[in-house]
Specification:
Elements: H1 3-22, H2 25-51, H3 56-65, H4 73-102, H5 110-126, H6 132-157, H7 161-180, E1 186-187, E2 192-193, H8 196-199, H9 223-240, H10 242-252, H11 254-259, H12 264-287, H13 303-313, H14 318-335, H15 347-358, H16 362-381
Antiparallel strand pairs: 1-2
Helix pairs in contact: 1-16, 2-3, 2-15, 2-16, 3-14, 4-9, 4-12, 4-13, 4-14, 5-6, 5-7, 5-12, 5-13, 6-7, 6-12, 9-10, 9-14, 10-12, 13-14, 14-15
Length: 382
């Protein structure tokens, strides 16, 4: 065999490898997510340039650095821990959206389920002084029940889950606002709940020494490793179990699933209940760190809606959601370090919103990459 023939054979083998890689769903998801992130960052940089061109480069660098902005290692570790703590609820909200979406449902009610869990977890801690695991369990069950209500309306009344969830969001918010207006759990003059560590220290999530790894950051708790465990469990349930297969089958075609002997209505309710439980875990594993109190609010938490973007940015993959959630939180917290002499403090939220908005194009980019890959494959065959 001549050198030319060997070279052509190597090129053919390389083309096959590249074709297999580009046609891979995982590869398409990763590349699409990177495209969206880069577009969002570029758009943010353009806006910073329009506002103040002289300091735009330094500003975007500060946003991307986040905790690396600090010069001392202890400070870097501490704020890296803060980023991880705030990533937990965002990833779990994304998993809630992802789980329902895989089963053919759109859980836009994460914010309401999140609200219910906040109220139940804080009430359990501040009013009843229950241990942390009881607070988490009650919050998870209550959020699951809240999600199941929307599932019930979908299954038995044929009410679109999006409409039901939106209504449940606002009902949940006002219900918790009213519940929290009690002197046993809230400082009425400040309209915010008391610090858990001053009222019921046993209700705080245990750190198990994790805080020491992040310069004694007391807010880094078992919630961080639990986030990874829950993501893995969700991935296994959806892809490796009969139960997950039935949920996905019901979502794809309810009538076909019913014909095959699956309990379609029960599966819809169970799906929304599990999605609600994940939102409940998101709220309880965050608020029981005592990092942030609940304040009386006139709008539902944005965490649930951001979770939708994170789910899609992560390619609707539980592990991808972890990386996407961290990225969004990294950018958001990095933006809080911007020099307010040159930029309004809200510019960070604007840039984060742009990046989140571009997440909507993940599926579009995946479709484009898939088409390009198929064209390359057809040319190779010819």
């Amino acid at each position: 065999m001549t050198n030319k023939e060997l070279s052509n054979k190597d090129l053919t083998g390389l083309k096959k490898i590249l074709l297999n890689l580009t046609s891979s769903n995982s590869f398409q998801s990763i590349i699409s997510a990177i495209f969206c992130a880069l577009i969002g960052i570029l758009a943010g940089y353009i806006i910073l340039t329009l506002i103040n061109a002289e300091h735009a480069t330094k500003a975007i660098s500060t946003i991307l650095k986040n905790f690396m902005y600090y010069k001392k290692t202890p400070m870097k570790l501490y704020y890296f821990g803060q980023t991880l703590v705030k990533t937990v609820p965002l990833v779990l909200c994304a998993l809630s959206v992802l789980f329902a979406y895989k089963a053919g449902l759109f859980n836009i009610g994460v914010s309401g389920q999140y609200c219910i869990a906040i109220g139940v977890s804080l009430w359990s801690a501040l009013a009843w002084h229950l241990p942390w695991y009881s607070c988490v369990l009650l919050a998870t069950i209550s959020a699951a029940a809240w999600g199941a209500i929307a599932g019930f309306f979908k299954a038995f009344c044929n009410i679109n889950e999006v409409i039901a969830c939106i209504m449940m969001n606002w009902i949940g918010l006002y219900l918790i606002n009213d519940l929290m207006k009690r002197e046993t759990v809230m400082n009425i003059s400040k309209s915010e709940t008391f610090a858990i560590r001053t009222v019921s220290p046993s209700s705080l999530l245990p750190t198990l020494g994790l805080g020491k790894l992040f310069h004694n950051n007391e807010y880094v708790t078992i919630a961080v490793p639990l986030m990874f465990v829950i993501a893995i469990i969700i991935m296994i349930v959806l892809n490796k179990t009969t139960f997950g297969y039935e949920l996905r089958a019901t979502g794809l075609n309810k009538n076909a699933a019913k014909y095959a002997g699956m309990k379609d209505k029960a599966n819809v309710i169970i799906t929304m209940a599990i999605a609600g439980a994940l939102a409940g875990l998101a709220a309880s594993l965050y608020y029981l760190t005592d990092l942030q109190p609940w304040k009386t609010s006139s709008s539902v938490p944005g965490m649930g809606f951001t979770g939708i973007a994170v789910a899609f940015l992560g390619g609707l993959n539980p592990i991808g959601a972890i990386f996407a959630g961290y990225f969004i939180q990294h950018i958001t917290l990095g933006g809080s370090l911007l020099d307010t002499h040159y930029y309004n403090s809200q510019i960070a939220d604007l840039i984060s919103s742009i990046i989140i908005y571009t997440c909507a194009f993940v599926l579009f980019f995946k479709t484009v990459i898939a088409k390009v890959s198929s064209k390359i494959g057809s040319r190779g065959d010819n």
